[in-house]
Amino acid sequence: MLFLKSIHTYYGSIHALKGVSLHVREGEIVTLIGANGAGKTTLLKTICGLLKPRKGSIHFLGEKITELPAETIVKKGISLVPEGRMVFSSLSVHTNLEMGAFCRRKARSQIQKEINSLQQQFPILSERIEQLAGTLSGGEQQILAICRALMSKPRLLILDEPSMGLAPILSREIFGIIVGLRNKGRTILLVEQNARAALQIADRGYVLETGKIILEGNTKSLLNHKEIQRAYLGKGYREVWED
Amino acid sequence: MIFGKGSDMPIWDKEHECTSREVLDQLQLERLQATLNRAYKNVAFYRKCFDAIGFYPEEDLSDLSDIQKLPFTTRKDMSDSYPYEMFAVPLKEVVRVHSSSGTMEKPTVVGYTRLDLQNWSDLVARILSAGGVTQDDVVQITFHYGLLTGGLGIHYGAERIGASVLPTSVGRTDRQIKIMQDYRTTILVSTPSYALIMVDRMEQSGIDVKRLNLKYGICAGEPWSEEIRKEIEQRLYIKVTDNYGLSEVMGPGIAGECLEQQGMHINEDHFLAEIIDPKTGKVLPPGEVGELVLTTLTKEAFPVIRFRSGDLCYLKDETCSCGRTFKRMSRILGRSDDVVIIKGINIIPERIGDILAEIEGIRPVYQLVATRKDHHDELEIWVEISEGLFFDKMREQRAMVDVMRKKIAIFFGITPRIKLVEPGSIFRKDGKATLFVDRR
């Protein structure tokens, strides 16, 4: 459903992505792993239209989206859960969720229905629905950020470091939620610092190194890969999350 | 018995083997970029090649067709990198080493990481499945086990499917036949000529071929024809498929026929195949005969970029009724260089001359003659007697012939018959002796 072909993106004068090609098929969880500064977030921002690539093309559902502004890309069905969650902390949980649907011209009642259904799926939201988002714990904020992204009814959900700064038990819950979303037919592109956990829930993975893809493969083979174990998984490192 | 059609047999890896062109093109591009990035970073040979033409993978490969900007890799390049110079990972990541038969002065040494071996097994499993192998089969592998890739390559693929594998290796035909009868072999993996040798022997010994349990034959290792296929099928009462492997690129697992028997599906998610005009190097469209050039897309330890196989064939890109979307390659129609294949071993006639020259310091006038008797291929080497080389002492002459035979046997793994002939008796064209005559 998503095809990137030889994308080059610059951050000012820095050549951050050097000819990256990648694809995500319907119903897949695809993960992108790489060290800090490898270009992971740049890549996500390029897909979402927040950064414009200098060269290359991005196709989503058969349509070229390379030149489109970010808000149009959201309407096309791509939604980003940004790094650090970025909830609107001075607004209520309810308003945060409403904000997620800003690009859809739907009746309030329809939006409210969807919020209700999310509340059913994630009871923690019901408890906090009138609280200011800033008063939520890290894990709760992450759930809110995911739900806010879901409010735009995305076909493809992109998550940037969803387990960052969370306790292991909460990370585990977040990864469980991601798997649940995929099982409901949602397609997911996941960037994670916790490479092991990401590889355990994903179908395929890409390894990004200094702006270039150096490896692609199914996650089982990547998990057993010596170079990846050494560089990203840490030797003798106990899994933080495992099913 | 009734044989399955291509469309009846299960497909080992449906997700990949039946993938859409759109996804396949994308996957090939992604994997080619990753391969070039790794090769450029880790293999001095490729870095030098790329730098020489000012090619930077990250800038200059934005489309699959951009691969045509790159130079070819030849057997000579690999021979010059003997043994490990072209490896892209440190040796401690390498879990298996094979080498190709010695057409060059030095053989090509190839390595495999753990992931490479996994992929290799899976790719061979695809080809064996396409040729009718299932987990219920008993597979007798009569390929050479050892440094060459044929035996172990097929072996791991058959095990991956879950078949019962009989690693009988080459030779000892009577024992092979006994095993085939007693162990109830259902799949014979052999060179086409060995399949015929076996059936000859069985007929001589009065064994009723119909009482064997054989169902399918998987043949490879040497060029063969549709007539030979028919002969094997009719005499062994089996259905036979062709497959293509190349030690320099991986071994078996590159391409294989389905039961439609209409050409070999190339595992395109792991290999990029091009057909070129062997003289100009220009890429030819599907349907035109030329030299097969292969690029690996996933190999880690020994990536190969635009390797000239020396094998002539053509590509078919129309869809196959078996459901696989991979392009097919025709059977091998010949060689673009002067490599001679005898008993599955590749020989360049000039190399024989090099060896003969080493022995006495003089390069004699010589000729290779391939003969066939009762499906057995033999190599004869005719050497002209000359004053410097063969004086009139019988005993020393005989010792010399022995040394020649042994040296060649050690180097090529095939024992020739050496025949001394009168000066001037070898056929010459424009004053040059013809190096190879095929009497098969």
Provide a quick synopsis of the model.
Chain A has 243 residues and is of the alpha/beta class. Helices cover 38% and strands 26% of the residues of chain A.
Labels describing this entry:
heterodimer; A: 243 residues; alpha/beta; Rossmann fold; 6-stranded mixed sheet; 4-stranded antiparallel sheet; 10 strands; globular; disordered C terminus; B: 440 residues; GMP Synthetase, Chain A, domain 3; 2 domains; 9-stranded mixed sheet; 12 helices; 23 strands
DSSP helical segment count of chain A? 10
Unreliable sequence segments of chain A: 236-243
State the fourth-level CATH superfamily of the largest domain in chain B: ANL, N-terminal domain
Could you give the count of β-strands of chain B? 23
Instruction: For the record, give the distance between the C-alpha atoms at the N and C termini of chain B, rounded to a whole number.
Output: 32 Å
For the termini of chain A, the CA-CA separation is 28 Å
General shape of chain A: globular
**How is the largest sheet of chain A built, in terms of strand order?**
6-7-8-3-9-10
CATH topology of the largest domain in chain B: Rossmann fold
Q: Approximately how much helix is present in the residues of chain B?
A: 25-40%
Count of all domains of chain A: 1
Low-confidence stretches of chain B: none
Strand/helix succession of chain A: EEEHEEHEHHHHEHEHEEHH
Structural class of chain B: alpha/beta
Number of domains of chain B: 2
Average of the residue pLDDT scores of chain B: 91
Q: Biggest interface: chains and residue counts?
A: A-B, 24 and 26 residues
